[in-house]
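Subject: design request, 85 residues
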């Protein structure tokens, strides 16, 4: 299991476009991934679940990877987040 935390810096938070790109990226990896906050975690490979979190600028996003390729998935996700959000 590998966990990544990232504070959202985009002034719009996680809206449709970055949420879709994040879900697409996470879907490329075989293992499971949960995303969310300390209060609520959802399946990171489901667009409506990720958008339903309603994350805004300043929120801390947690990603928990488990299974095959978790290390590669964590590195790719952190790179995407730092470049996009």
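Subject: RE: design request

Done. Sequence follows.
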């Amino acid at each position: 299991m590998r966990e990544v935390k990232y504070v959202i810096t985009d002034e719009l938070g996680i809206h449709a476009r970055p949420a879709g790109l994040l879900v697409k990226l996470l879907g490329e990896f075989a293992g499971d991934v949960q995303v969310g906050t300390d209060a609520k975690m959802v399946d990171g490979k489901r667009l409506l679940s990720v958008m339903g979190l309603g994350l805004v600028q300043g929120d801390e996003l947690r990603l928990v990877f488990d299974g095959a390729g978790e290390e590669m998935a964590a590195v790719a996700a952190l790179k995407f987040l730092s470049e996009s959000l």
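The longest strand covers residues 60-66.
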